[in-house]
Structures are given as structure tokens and as C-alpha cells.
Design goal:
This protein is of the alpha+beta class. The protein has 3 helices and 5 strands; from the N terminus they run αβββββαα.
């Protein structure tokens, strides 16, 4: 598929099948998520998706417009910095998952750059107890 065709496909698709790092049992490792209108995706792109009460790393397997019959949640964010598997690696990972009866994310994860499986959350902690918290400006 050409880059122009992939861009056209990503702009018009409302849903994505995503291989999730900690997939639900019985889901075959791929879950459906809504694609936010302002997000451009291509197959193979790494994203953060809500799973239970946490965020999980996922890889876009397929984009489509087939509305599911159940409620779905939107994709949370793209991996930062953005990363996408090339079509050959995506196809190899999907083939490996099918041939070995493993979940797609497990077959695709060796193609991800090292250290991409963790999301860093910055937190601030007030260490000076004499500061009046009411005087602080919210961000």
C-alpha cells in the first residue's frame, strides 16, 4: 500500500483493531477502539489505549468503518515519540501470531524499540510544609 493510500485510509476510518499488551482472555489479543477525529493512524502504529483502569501499549492492526455492536472507548494517545512498524514487520508479526497460536502483541513486541513498554507519569510533590497550598496556581 502506498503512503498516499495509507494516509487516505487513516483519515476516513473511525475504528481500529489494536493488538494490546495485556489483552483480555478470549479476545485473541486484539480489541476495537474508536479513533479520535484529530488522530491520524496507520496500521503498525504504536498507541496507548485504555484497558480496565490503566493504559496499555497497543499496535494498530487494522483500520475500518464497521461500527461494533458494543460500546467502545477511544484511543488515548500516540506513542511519544511516534513509532510505526513497517508493513513487512507488521505482516510477519501477524503471521507469527497465527502460526504459533500466540497473541498478536507478543509476536509484534520484538519489533518495538527497547524501553517502549512503559509510560512515564510525572508527579509533583510539595516538600515545603510552610507553603500555603491555596495560594498555588493550578496548571
Amino acid at each position: 500500500m502506498s503512503d498516499a493510500a495509507e494516509s487516505a485510509e487513516s483519515a476516513s476510518c473511525a475504528y481500529a483493531e489494536i493488538a494490546v499488551e495485556r489483552g483480555m482472555p478470549g479476545s485473541a489479543g486484539a480489541l476495537t477502539y474508536a479513533v479520535p477525529a484529530d488522530m491520524d493512524l496507520i496500521p503498525g502504529q504504536a498507541v496507548w489505549v485504555p484497558l480496565r483502569k490503566k493504559l496499555a501499549l497497543g499496535i494498530v492492526l487494522r483500520l475500518h468503518d464497521d461500527a461494533p455492536s458494543f460500546a467502545i472507548r477511544p484511543i488515548h494517545a500516540l506513542l511519544d515519540p511516534p513509532f510505526a512498524l513497517d508493513p513487512a514487520r507488521l505482516e510477519a508479526g501477524v503471521w507469527l501470531a497465527r502460526e504459533t497460536a500466540s497473541c498478536p502483541f507478543a509476536a509484534l513486541s520484538p519489533f518495538l524499540p527497547p524501553g517502549r513498554s512503559q509510560r512515564i507519569a510525572e508527579t509533583l510533590r510539595l516538600i515545603d510544609p510552610t507553603i500555603d497550598r491555596a495560594s498555588l496556581t493550578p496548571t
